[in-house]
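Hello,

Our lab assistant flagged a job as stuck in the queue for most of the afternoon. It eventually completed. Since we weren't sure the result was trustworthy after the delay, we are filing this so someone can double-check. Below is the sequence as submitted and the structure that was eventually returned. Let us know if re-running is recommended.
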Amino acid sequence: MVSDHFYLHRRPSSTVQVVISVSKKISKKAVVRNRIRRRIRPIVHEFISDLKPATYFIVAKPGAENIKGKELKEELFRLIRSIRN
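-- returned structure --
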């Protein structure tokens, strides 16, 4: 599944696991890449109980460093909801 700032891949698994990947293509600075991960993690934890057992790979695309707050939450919610349906 694809959104404006993220890709979401799902692989079968016996438990729910979420992997967040932010490459150096987004930013050469680890501070920026870690900030993106820290913003995503609490939002994903809100939806994790609704997910089916699988490994979910969230991959940030260029521009993800600029998205914040409510806009980030809505985009991740749409992305996760699209894979549930």
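-- support follow-up --
The delay was a queue issue, not a problem with the job. The result is valid. The radius of gyration is 12 Å. The helical segments are 30-47, 69-84.
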